[in-house]
Design brief:
The complex is a heterodimer of chains A (228) and B (253).
Chain A (H helix, E strand, L loop, with lengths): L1 E10 L2 E11 L4 E5 L6 H9 L6 E6 L6 H6 E4 L11 H11 L5 H10 L13 H13 L5 E5 L7 H14 L5 E6 L2 H4 L5 E6 L2 E7 H8 L3 H8 L2
Parallel strand pairs in A: 3-7, 3-8, 5-6, 6-7
Antiparallel strand pairs in A: 1-2, 1-4, 8-9
Helix pairs in contact in A: 5-6
Chain B lengths: L1 H36 L4 H38 L3 H4 L6 H31 L6 H12 L1 H26 L6 H30 L1 H8 L3 H32 L5
The chains are: A alpha/beta (228), B mainly alpha (253).
């Protein structure tokens, strides 16, 4: 589904990502794991076409990022990205207008579960509620691929499990889910595969269960050991 | 998709500008009412002078705010946080940029109409000083093209800013600084175009200058039509520059 070949990104000569060769198949939940500043967000932006690569290429279903890839990728950025002057229901309408795969019913149900009032203005929501709203909109698409950049970084530990359950219960089951995070312990239970990224390079890409069995530890413990 | 993009761009900008336009028109109408009531009491006249100043500030402020809001929308919507949604819409880049240019043109027409309409509302059929009366008569005689030129010039501030921001994206270090430098460069190119057009007209259409010296209003009108040519070209050019640079390199912060 996603193929990166010798992908690299430099900012004013500083390497953010280098020589990334990565193939991600369909129907899996993949954890893109690395410390802050390791290159996770840069890789995600390159896959989404929000950055132009300095070297190499990205292909989604064989095509460069563009209108067709945006139809099938549902992306949750790490920053607040919604127009804060909109009301919640207007944001839902915006998604429904632009994304043919958006499921209004699912959005309504998840909003109720998250206890978000559709009449409220986005700017009047708390930071945590804004993040929940963003996740609701992204997950309410029946997309072929979900790319979630740090979906649990801004919420308290108690809410993390609820957010992960929301992701698990609502994403399209045939879809690929790429989740980037540095909070590995919180997220490892849902992962099928893991990709370790360190100083802009992919250092490991393996099946999550196989890795745990091979090393006899949790992924969090392996990560801490390897990048201590 | 263009219809949907336009709908949200118009709604977003209109939400801020339309109430401002409404207040400006009300203020101008109130000023006119005070002038009308002056015949009954000089207190109304004094109050009218005060609201007159506020109205003129409101008119100028509305025009300036139109430029600011449109340019800000372009920047925030494409290059800042909201760009993470806008640039992930399944819409061609050309469509996104075209919508911004089209909506800017729409609100430039609105701002120009507001300015002229508000001034007319406040001062129409009033006795003005001879100089102002003469100026108004000149403007009236060249009205359609004068109005178009005001719109095109207002619009050029915005389209120039859009193109400059798009060029500034190429810079890795200082995008805003690069955009400012690009704006100055684009302005310089525009002035060169103006100069070339004027030189061509000067050498190829000598009769026009003779008529201008005789204050022939038809000649003035023709000169304004000629002056509109580089402005139209510059506005269209800014659209293509924006699309070309954004297509070549998109680097969202």
């Amino acid at each position: 589904m996603i193929e990166c070949a010798n992908l690299g990104k430099f900012y004013n000569g500083v390497v953010a990502l280098e020589g990334v060769n990565l193939t991600i198949g369909r129907g899996k939940i993949i954890g893109l794991l690395g410390e802050n500043g390791s290159g996770k967000t840069t890789l995600i932006k390159l896959i989404n076409g929000l950055l132009s690569p300095s070297t190499g290429s990205v292909a989604i279903d064989g095509k460069a990022p563009g209108v067709e890839s945006k139809k099938i990728i549902s992306y949750l950025p790490e920053n607040a990205f919604l127009d804060s002057d909109m009301r919640v229901r207007e944001a839902v309408g915006y998604y429904a207008d632009f994304f043919a795969d958006f499921d209004r019913e699912k959005a309504g149900r998840v909003l109720r579960e998250m206890e978000i009032d559709p009449k409220k203005k986005i700017k009047n929501l708390s930071k945590g509620m804004k993040e929940k709203l963003s996740l609701t909109l992204v997950i309410s698409r029946n997309a072929g691929c979900y790319i979630l950049d740090e979906p649990i970084a801004g919420v308290d530990p108690a809410a993390r499990d609820r957010i992960l359950d929301t992701i698990l219960n609502n994403f399209n089951e045939n879809a690929t889910v790429l989740v980037s995070t540095h909070l590995i312990a919180d997220i490892e239970r849902i992962l099928d595969e893991v990709v370790f990224i360190h100083h802009g390079k992919i250092v490991l890409h393996e099946d999550a269960d196989a890795l745990r069995t091979r090393r006899g530890k949790s992924i969090d413990a392996i990560f801490r050991e390897d990048f201590r | 998709m263009i219809g949907k993009v336009l709908k949200y761009d118009i709604r977003s900008i209109g939400k801020t500008l339309l109430p401002v336009y409404g207040v400006t028109v009300l203020l101008c109408a109130f000023t006119r009412l005070m002038v009308f009531l002056e015949t009954y009491s000089s207190v109304f006249g004094m109050f009218g002078m005060l609201t007159n100043v506020f109205s003129l500030i409101a008119v100028a402020g509305s025009v300036a705010l139109t430029l600011f809001i449109c340019v800000r929308r372009f920047y925030v919507h494409l290059f800042k946080e909201q760009g993470y949604l806008t640039n992930m819409l399944p819409v061609k880049l050309e469509t996104l940029v075209f919508s911004k240019f089209a909506v800017s043109l729409l609100f430039s027409v609105g701002a120009a109409a507001l300015a002229i309409g508000s001034l007319a509302l406040m001062y129409a059929s009033l006795e003005l000083t001879p100089n102002i009366t003469e100026f108004v008569n000149v403007v009236k005689s060249v009205f359609p093209i004068f109005f178009v030129l005001i719109i095109l010039s207002l619009y050029l501030y915005q389209s120039g800013a859009y193109a400059a921001y798009s060029i500034g994206q190429r810079s890795g270090r200082n995008k805003i600084g690069s955009a400012f430098a690009a704006y100055l460069l684009l302005y310089f190119v525009y002035q060169i175009m103006n100069l070339i057009v004027l030189l061509v007209v000067y050498f190829a259409w000598r009769d026009l200058w003779t008529l201008l010296e005789q204050n022939d209003m038809h000649a003035v009108k023709n000169l304004l039509y000629v002056a509109a040519i580089p402005t139209v070209i510059a506005n269209i050019g800014c659209y293509f520059v924006s699309v070309r640079f954004l297509k070549k390199q998109m680097d969202l912060e």
